[in-house]
TrEMBL record:
SUPFAM superfamilies from the UniProt entry: Aminoacid dehydrogenase-like, N-terminal domain (SSF53223), NAD(P)-binding Rossmann-fold domains (SSF51735)
Domain Tetrahydrofolate dehydrogenase/cyclohydrolase catalytic: 6-121
Pfam families, sorted: THF_DHG_CYH, THF_DHG_CYH_C
Species in which this protein is naturally found: Streptococcus dentapri
Listed EC numbers: 1.5.1.5, 3.5.4.9
Keyword NADP in annotation: yes
Protein name listed in UniProt: Bifunctional protein FolD
Residue ranges the record marks as coiled coil: none
Amino acids binding NADP(+): G166, R167, S168
Summary of the function given for this chain in its UniProt record: Catalyzes the oxidation of 5,10-methylenetetrahydrofolate to 5,10-methenyltetrahydrofolate and then the hydrolysis of 5,10-methenyltetrahydrofolate to 10-formyltetrahydrofolate.
Length: 285
């Protein structure tokens, strides 16, 4: 068994308790309650679960939380009007549109319509630019959560070889930039990468975000390495499993995230943290 199992759930709980304290203080000192609105279009079952969890966590931490549930027949223009309304509403500091959207809605236009200062998912190109210029404002929540995990478990990044599998705008690319900012040497791999297993085997830290159950085996992992599994896949029984074959990789790794209970709980935590930070900035304006 791995020397250490990363407990993302415990870290998330700890951070959300601290956040609840900060939220109370913000209200007492400035009369501001951080507000988060989540907009859900259609009835994708996975999205329904994510949105419910986000709402529950936001309320528990003392946020003002609203979920706008819209029919999947809504037009793009109608959706843009709803976003414009929340952009103008000073009681909401964070706006999140749950992806994926129905195919008749252009998700790029929707992301562009969100006020970048309220874009708590960090997907707006302005926030991408801030991130890549080394002055992050809103950062995609999953990579931000992974940075918190690495910090909590005192994983030294300076000069380390980090290999990321998966180059999505949501996970892989922003992850690479956050790690570069901490002076790691980053290799971003994808489906066309040659000799993937041997590239990964050199990694001090391996981060996997591809969406293929049990893809990463012991052939990809260096002895004593750190393995972060972002993947969320369902097996035939509906059980949540990661992209890493945990049973085969854990004996080699020094630190490893389980699925569930690893990266997942940190994503919501960072969503709340960024909403709180946006509320705090509204005081300072
Ligand atoms: P995505 O947009 O589908 O991107 C997948 C990436 O993986 C692509 O860059 C793709 O390469 C690469 N890839 C796919 N198959 C590969 C292979 N056989 N070898 C090497 N690279 C391969 O996925 P995503 O949105 O980043 O999500 C990835 C996984 O993370 C999913 O399981 C998702 O559910 C999970 N996730 C979890 C959280 C969380 O909070 N825990 C948050 C976000 C995502 P190409 O670019 O070449 O196609």
């Amino acid at each position: 068994m791995a020397e250490k199992l990363i407990d993302g759930k415990a870290l998330a709980q700890k951070m959300q308790l601290q956040l609840a304290e900060k939220v109370k203080k913000l209200e007492i000192e400035h009369g501001i309650v951080p507000g988060l609105v989540v907009i859900l279009v259609g009835d994708n079952p996975a999205s329904q679960i994510y949105v419910r969890n986000k709402e529950r966590s936001a309320l528990t931490a003392g946020f003002k939380s609203e979920t706008v549930r819209l029919s999947d027949s809504i037009s793009e223009e109608e959706l843009l009007e709803i976003i414009a309304k929340y952009n103008q509403d000073p009681s909401y500091h964070g706006i999140l549109v749950q992806l994926p959207l129905p195919s008749h809605i252009n998700d790029k236009r929707v992301i562009l319509a969100i006020d970048p200062h309220k874009d708590v998912d960090g997907f707006h190109p302005m926030n991408t630019g801030h991130l890549w210029s080394g002055r992050p404002l809103m950062v995609p929540c999953t990579p931000a959560g992974i940075m918190e995990i690495l910090h909590e478990y005192e994983v030294d990044l300076e000069g380390k070889n980090v290999v990321i599998i998966g180059r999505s705008n949501i996970v892989g690319k922003p992850m690479a930039q956050l790690l570069l900012d901490k002076n790691a040497t980053v290799t971003l791999t994808h489906s066309r990468t040659r000799h993937l297993a041997s590239v990964c085997k050199r990694a001090d830290i391996l981060i996997v975000a591809i969406g293929q159950a049990n893809f990463v085996t012991e052939d990809f992992v260096k002895e004593g390495g750190v393995v972060i599994d972002v993947g969320m896949n369902r097996d035939d029984n509906g059980k949540l499993i990661g992209d890493v074959n945990f049973e085969r990789v854990a004996p080699l790794a020094n630190l490893i995230t389980p699925v569930p209970g690893g990266v997942g709980p940190m994503t919501i935590t960072m969503l709340l943290e960024q909403t709180y930070q946006a509320a705090l900035r509204s005081v300072e304006l």
